[in-house]
Each structure stands twice: as structure tokens, then as C-alpha cells.
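Here is one chain, start to finish.
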Amino acid sequence: MGTPEFAVPSLKALIENKFDIKLVVTQPDRPSGRGQKLSPPPVKVCAEQFNIPVLQPHSLRSDKEAVEKIKSIPCDFLVVVAFGQILPKVILDHPKVAPLNVHASLLPAYRGAAPIARSILEGEEKTGITIQWMIEALDQGDILYQVPCQILETDTAGSLHDRLMHIGADALIECLHLFEKNQIVRRSQDARVGTYAAKLQKAEAIISFNQPAIFVHKAIMGMNPWPIARCQIMGKVLQIYRSHFVGRHTDASPGTVIDTSDGEIVVACEQGCVAFTEVQLENRKRLSTEEFLKGHPIPNGLILGTHS
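Its structure:
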């Protein structure tokens, strides 16, 4: 059971390792692109390439026919990777051995919908993958297997996502091999311990420079590829895709452009500065800041706005 690109490596790993997959359950096709044509989820595309039957219920909480279809197929394991629906207990209880979930954090940290972006936004130095035994309570099942992953200074949520989806696939296969050898160890979670990774909201994209520069930088990187950090420059919206922290003291007010001489837009914040390195002005192309400045010179002393 999975839907987005993040789940595809896990499905492929199961296929390549000769696990017998009787059914793939994914979300319904959704409109996408300018033409709003119906597009299949990446997991459906992958499953169809390998001639695996696909089920696309709108909600397993209300679609009794879909639930009965799943229950009619005997299975040892239910494997869930970024499926996108809350599973009823009757589904979680169906597999003979275990319902497994590939989660993109080191539980109990960052339970919830956006663990990858939130780990960057919160300034974590590492995250990872947890294979957990699914229960009804959100991401609170027993921990079965974990693999840590460093968060690099250059990581966006997108680049970290791409590493973790492959780490997750490998961790899933290793965990299944431990089950085969009867070497699995279940470690319970304390529901009172941990953090929650709420889904990102578009309103969070508006950057406030009245905070430590390192957090401004982390916000920019954590909101790439969505919702993309933004500020106002000379009455227009400027989207900021990449940045780096500059440990430079300045007396300038937060939001003030203090330097553009090295092909970067260096902006004053609290406790240092942040340098934009990849930007996009509304209705224009996404560019390196160096290229952007050739066509849009910015004077030092300009104060960037925070309203979209």
C-alpha cells in the first residue's frame, strides 16, 4: 500500500527480491498539470509495469467492497509506504505476521505527515528510516528496524526525500529478512515521548527575517520543493529555492540586503545573515542568484518584505 514516488523503490525492492505481491493498493488517479488531466499515482504506474493487480479506493474507512477485496487475499505481511489514508483496524489485523510501515524519521521523533521537511526546518543533524509495526495510533507502533541518515548542510527536503526513499527500500528488505530468520526484536514506543511533524502549510512559506539566520536558511531548504520560501522584493514575490548561512555580524535591520557582490543576495537576520543562491521572481524563470542579479541588480540597503 503506497502512493507517491517515495513508495516506488520499496515496491521495486520487494519485486526484485522475489516477494510474492498479490495486490497493490494506492490512491485514486488525480488531476494534475495545467490541463488537469487525470494522472495515475507513481505506485500504480510501477505496479502495472509488473502486471500486479491494483486497487484504488477513495477511502478504506467507507469503502466496504475494497476492504472485503483486501481481506479475501491471504497475506503474511501488509507493507505500507506513504499510502495517504488512515487504515481501519480490520485491515491492520489482516496479515498473518505483521502490518509494516516504512516511515521517514527515527521514531519517536517526527510522527506525522511531513517528517522530512520538519527535520530540516527544526535544524536536525540527522534523521532516518523506521520500519514500525503499524497500529491504529499514528506512528506509535513498535519499532522493528532503524537506519540513520545524516542531514547535509546542502540538503533540501527534496534531496533528503530522494536519499531516504532508497534507504527505506533497503531497510524494508532487511527487516523482512530478519522476520524470515526469526531475529526480529520489537521495541515499544512511549506515546508521551516524541515530536509531531504536521503537514506543511502554504502560509509557512512567507519568510520572516526577524529570527536567527540559521533558522531562515533551514526554512528555505526545508520548504523546497514545496511550498517554496518567499518574500517581497520591490513589490513582487521572490521565491527562494536555496541558500546558505553566513556568520556575518551586521547592525542592519532584519530583511536588509547588505551585499550582492559575490553573485549572492546576502540578507541581514538575527544572529547572522542568509545568502540566497537560487531564486525565482514571479512570472520569470528559476535562476541561480548570480544569473538573476545580471538582469535585476539589487541595491544594498533594500529591505525585503514578508507579505505575499
